[in-house]
Specification:
There is one protein chain. The chain has 321 residues and is of the alpha/beta class. Helix content is 37%, strand content 14%. The strands form 2 sheets. A 5-stranded parallel β-sheet has the order 7-6-5-8-9, with helices on both faces. Strand 5, helix 6 and strand 6 form a beta-alpha-beta unit. Helix 2 crosses helix 11. The longest helix is centred in the last third of the chain and has 20 residues. The radius of gyration is 19 Å and the shape is globular. The two termini are 19 Å apart.
């Protein structure tokens, strides 16, 4: 696997392989020495044109645990803020000997352009592009679901028959898109719930059920997983719902709504959370919540992705250990 640009590019076997290798990587975190020599001598550049905390730190930790040399590049305060193009930035990184580039960019499709432009001969991993995709977030979400639902029997398994309800700002969410494609590939049944104004045009292309009433959706779908999405106010240039109170009442996972869910229903959120808007404290801090697990699992999943894009041609996953 030279690049990871979209979950739509992954077949079931590819996705399961990533999740299984992530299990191997998770085992590393339990060791006294939490490092592998797998990417020694490899340079990974975190090329972030948008602000990020969780994703950038997670990729940095993943690369360092694999013994890679890491360069963090932020657009703010760099030549990009002076007008330098993606092409010129990429060619500069290539001249510095970058072997892998983890890119987050506000323009949808930028990682694919970078991967296929010929500007760099490096593995490219999409860490979020505009409102398009965030494939490693979807992979860590699937990894978290698989571990919670299947436990020690997770290996070599997908998510067949698992019912997942994705709720909130579908329109602006790259997480929703990546999850819809990946979860369906793994055999899950996926449904979207949102105000009509936050459902994108062409939603039929996702092949998921669409609901506009959260309570009705919960009753009909009987979800195993409820995934709440962040309201991305920074991407909104119009009024998509009356106000925060109205949104929370109709589409938020309130304490009252959460208490009606079965004890076995998982509650997920990609973070950062707007508590009191899309999710209540009771739901976010409950035993059913996987929010902190998602953050921890992100390092293991990103280790697996970096391994497969930068080292798998010369080693087996067993050899990586």
């Amino acid at each position: 696997m030279k690049h990871l640009l979209s979950t739509a590019d992954l077949g079931r076997d590819d996705a399961v392989q990533i999740l299984d290798i992530a299990e191997d990587m998770a085992a590393v975190s339990t060791r006294e020495v939490k490092k592998l020599p797998t990417l020694r001598g490899i340079t990974v550049v975190n090329l972030f044109f948008e602000d990020s905390t969780r994703t950038r730190i997670s990729f940095e930790a993943a690369a360092k645990r694999l013994s890679a040399d890491v360069i963090n590049f932020s657009a703010k305060g760099s030549s990009v803020s002076k007008g330098e193009s993606l092409k010129d930035t990429a060619q500069t990184l290539a001249a510095m000997g970058a072997d892998g580039i983890v890119i987050r960019h506000p323009a949808s499709g930028a990682p694919r352009v970078l991967a296929h432009s010929g500007w760099v001969d490096a593995g490219v991993v999409n860490a979020g592009d505009g409102t398009h995709e965030h494939p490693t977030q979807a992979l860590l979400d699937a990894f978290t679901m698989r571990r919670r639902l299947h436990g020690d029997a997770s290996r070599e398994r997908g998510l067949d028959g698992v019912r997942v309800l994705i709720v909130g700002d579908i329109l602006h969410s790259r997480v929703a898109r990546s999850n819809a494609w990946l979860l369906k590939t793994l055999g899950a049944e996926v449904a979207f719930v949102a105000p009509p104004t936050l459902i994108p045009n062409g939603v039929a292309a996702f092949g998921v059920d669409v609901h506009y009433d959260l309570d009705e959706a919960i009753a009909q779908v009987r979800p195993d997983v409820v995934m709440m999405l962040r309201i991305q106010q920074e991407r909104m240039n119009a009024a998509f719902f009356p106000n925060g109170r109205e949104y929370a009442r109709a589409w938020g996972l309130t304490a009252e709504r959460f208490r009606k869910l079965p004890d076995t229903t998982l509650v997920m959120h990609p973070g950062p959370m707007n508590r009191g808007l899309e999710i209540s404290d009771e739901a976010a801090d409950s035993a059913q919540s996987t929010v902190l697990e998602q953050v921890a699992n992100g390092v293991s999943v990103r280790m697996a992705v970096l391994y497969l894009t930068l080292a798998a041609g010369t080693q087996t996953s067993q050899g990586a250990q």
